[in-house]
Amino acid sequence: MTSGDSPAFMSLKAGLDRHPTKGNEMESRTTLQRLRERREVESGFTLIELLIVIVILGILAAIVVFAVGTSTKDAKTSACQSDVATVQTAVEAYAAQHDGNFPSSVATLTTASNGHGPWLRTDPGDVTIGSGGAVTSNGTGNCAAS
Asked: What is the sign, positive or negative, of the torsion defined by CA atoms of 26, 32, 35, 39?
């Protein structure tokens, strides 16, 4: 600073020194600005982003398949148990109309006899009638014997 330089002049000179020129313009930009500019040029997803999405979708698909598999087995078991209960009711109705005699097979319940019946529309196929009218699952319906 020379004796002829005023404080205002020195302030103006310092401001000019800090002002970026074309040569150092790249240095004056912040990292965030450079990232934004680079992102504007690039388009699409990165490989890592796509792989993460694929892994997440795979996990969700596995959960759904497991849940559906369990509910399908539960539904088959419930259907079998319902068939056993329906045939048991038909056996009791048959016995009531035939003086306490039980039918020899499920096929007997699907046909009319002596002006009665049929007690079942169709043979459920997964139950059998044992001695004394006991109705059991034959194992094809995946339900416990009743």
From this structure: negative
